Amino acid sequence: MLSIKEFEEGKFVFMATSFGTVKKTSLALFSRRGRAASSRSRSTPATVGRRPITDGTKDILLFTTGARRFAFHGDEVRPMAPRSAGVRGVN
Fold first, then answer.
1. Which range is least confidently modeled, 17-21, 34-38, 52-56, 66-70?
2. pLDDT score recorded for residue 36
3. 3-state class of 31 per DSSP?
4. pLDDT, average across residues 19-24
């Protein structure tokens, strides 16, 4: 759960799951003024990492239990709806 005071346009919530799925969602979509939104879909595992507020342009590093790391730029993940499943970040 995140405690957010201001839902700024141009800011995103970046999430990663235990199955290697990543998702970038506009912070404004989580505002009560907008649509009610949940970031959990029926097939998405528990979230293991999250950068609460980002402008979506930072470098992303994902690590596996086998000591492998994967790096990519935040612009490579397109913004998605809160209920979308996300995209593969790492196998």
1. 34-38
2. 44
3. coil
4. 85
DSSP at 25: E
**pTM, 2 dp:** 0.67
- Per-domain residue ranges for the chain? 12-88
- CA pair distance 60, 72, nearest whole angstrom: 5
Mean pLDDT value across residues 76-90? 83
Instruction: Provide the token pair at 2.
Output: 């995140």
Tokens of 14: 């970046």
Query: 89: left (phi > 0), else alpha (psi -120 to 50), else beta?
Result: alpha
**CB-based contact 82:29 (threshold 8 Å):** yes
